[in-house]
User: Fold these one by one.
Assistant:
Number 1:
Amino acid sequence: MNVSRRHFLAGTAAIGAVGTGARAQPAGTELIPAPARATIAPGRETEVWGYNGSVPGPSLRFRQGGRARIAVTNRLNQDTTVHWHGLRLPNPMDGVPHLTQAPIVPGGRFLYEFDLPDAGTFWYHPHASSAEQVERGLAGAFIVEEREPPVVDRDLIWVLDDWRLTQEGAVAGEFGNMMDSSHAGRLGNTVTINGRVPERFAVQGGERLRLRLINAANARVFGLEFGELNPTIVTLDGHPLEPHAPPGGRVILGPGMRADLILDIGAAPGATLAVVDGFYARGRYKLVDVVVEGRKREVPLTQPVRLAANPLSVPDLAAAERVVIDLGGGMMDPRLMRAVRERGGQPDPEMIRTMRERMVAGQIWTLNGQSVMGHHHAPLLTLQRGRSYVFAFNNDTAWPHPMHIHGMAFRVLTRNGQAVPYGEWRDTTLLDPGERVEIGFVADNPGDWMFHCHILEHQEAGMMGTIRVT
Ligand code: C2O
Ligand code: CU
């Protein structure tokens, strides 16, 4: 039995079960975040928070050009919201507490309703106390099917997550502690696919799979090596691009990021092929064994896998306004190191004092020198509606940061001054330590939009702001 099948059996409350190829959503969908129990690792139960009793929540499926109508009833003992990550929707539907809506109080209900201009792999999660709520299991896939989907044998979803469990199998506490917040975020000790520690994933020879990868972890970056499975990347963050093999043999997914792969299973029945996560040099591990059981067909499918583009506004780069976004802060702050070096090894007392004050206030990270806490605040940037912008990110920290913008998709232009090969559209882009990345987009969606690092402990420790499009 493969992972998705198990998820289907486990998640009887699920509306659109993973991997069943279940077609578009009935008119009204209910999501109920509530405490639940789940078997994350074999042989023991974990208390989690789930949507409709399952972890991850039900996979929602809609059709491009359709409309989503989703009622959320809060059965948690704290405020929540649901954010529809990557979807371009009207600002009041974006699910950011205090900024785009009042929080959904315990027992409260909120109806989300919006059109779906883009096809692709998206996801949903709370935006209230997200470092805790997402970590406890609140997340799910949101799939918008193309008008003409590619021909595949199975359309599968892997929601990747990373849990920090205690020896007893409980979700460890101390969300957003100083240690996690000032370093790489909350890295866990248990990686799951669709809420379960995976053992094996059964495929058939000659089969063509569409595999939708979603990184729902708080902080873990995945660098998945599929080896001889030879995947082809066909979308990133939901948006189609020139089909290509993963650069360097790795599919890199920072928190919040997605990739759709096409896998043509070339190996013979009986073969076992490992998928390895090699992102952290000292933490390589085998994610799952892909086992070829039987043969689907002798002659592989050869239909093209290039997907039709989503209707995005293309930025006018010649006329675009350039905005520099400096990422700062965290442990081993390069600015501090430089300042110390310039003073011949002596730390600047003034700098140390500000840093200490910030730390005490939990303001560990900055965007353009500001450390923003909570959701309601003056905009970091005000953009003119309809205008093109280039954001020049400069990661002046010792840590990677997946930077995410709500409400609009952007095109990645350059990395460290070099044009990127596929000019992909994304909603989240990962910046390595010291890296400079330029993105371009049209500020075509009015409202106040969150803009933050998707390592949720970094977000809650200041690495966020609001972009106002007016
Ligand atoms: Cu997944 Cu503010 O986003
Ligand atoms: Cu970050």
Number 2:
Amino acid sequence: MIEFDNTDAAARAVAAAQRLLVLSGAGISAESGIPTFREAQTGLWAQFSSQDLATPQAFAADPERVWAWYRWRRTLIARGGINPGHKAIAALERRLPVVVATQNVDGLHAAAGSTDIAELHGNIWRERCPHCHAETIAPVAESDDEAPLPRCANCQTMTRPGVVWFGEMLPADAMSHAERALERCDCVLVVGTSNQVYPAAALVEQAVAGPATVIEINPEPTDVSNAVDLRIGDSASTALPQILNALDGLGADG
Ligand code: BV8
Ligand code: ZN
């Protein structure tokens, strides 16, 4: 792993690739003003308890508190919107097939134009009825915190956010989509994740152990930083557009 200006090397690896997998986490949305989870001081888990907000037990005990937290996060996402990092990933599809497997629930990769996305932890705009399992999609908008909590149109049970909480299985289709993409790709971009939450972190570990060229973009080192092929110690919204520019500079013969 070399830590210097790896932008050109990353661009050459993407130019040489047939299929790209992007494994993204909260860091890619940080510059949209959406807090990450595990960063000291600013991360959500520095202010709130994951056990009180992101478990099925927490929702059963106090759905109002859990919904208040998700409504607040929806408002931050609606206000923040996409940033140049999301846009650069979407723009890579002009060059090669790209699968984005994200731990983020904010829906911003799709909003930026990425078309092949595995949402490993679900989507904050989706709602699901715990009783009859009906699903609805809420409009992307700032939340009205005074509005009554959402209820299922079929059976009037209070719905829950369509995200994956601790102790819950990941959606099987999203996980198998990501695993298939990992088997097929020859280049992996790991962007803005601390690689602490399983099974998503296992995808990164498999990528590092496999034959694909793995590029990590994260201002802070992680547990896999020493094992990746290329590391760019910069923010996603700076590094990704730079890679795109460098790709343009490589010309047709890469
Ligand atoms: C499951 C809800 C099977 C959605 C979230 C003990 C050992 C090992 C595993 C476990 C264990 N105990 C329990 C487990 C399993 C557990 C787990 O992994 N726990 C860990 C924490 C120990 N996993 C589960 O429970 C999963 N399910 O295993 O099912 C099962 C089930 C039942 C019984 C048996 C087996 C479910 C996990 C779902 C978690 N859901 N939240 C929501 O509301 O959002 S977690 C939360 O963390 C988010 O979903 C988030 O997506 C996820 C991952 O975090 P990151 O994206 O990596 O974010 P983080 O803040 O950590 O890092 C940000 C990074 O960005 C940093 O590195 C930072 O430097 C960088 N950064 C900052 N700015 C920038 C930047 N990078 C680039 N540019 C920048 N500008
Ligand atoms: Zn229902």
